[in-house]
Amino acid sequence: MAAPSRLDSEMTMDALMRRWPSTIPVVIRHGMLCVGCPIGRFHTVREACRAHEMDEALLIRDLIAAVVASR
């Protein structure tokens, strides 16, 4: 499977963090324990936000900011 070229809420948490390691601190800062979680291979960003009762738009905004800052 090719690495996704664009960050979106349908990516799995695992794919997100592998493609853009700069997002890992954002995930941790938001209190999500997705780093190393076996469900991260299957949970999309959207599903993880629902599971953690988190604002999806806020998380996406912070993830994109981390990716842009790492370039």
UniProtKB/TrEMBL annotation:
It comes from Chelativorans petroleitrophicus. It comes from the Bacteria. SUPFAM superfamilies: SP0561-like (SSF140683). This is DUF1858 domain-containing protein. Pfam families: DUF1858. The lineage of its organism: Bacteria, Pseudomonadati, Pseudomonadota, Alphaproteobacteria, Hyphomicrobiales. Residues 9-59 form the DUF1858 domain.
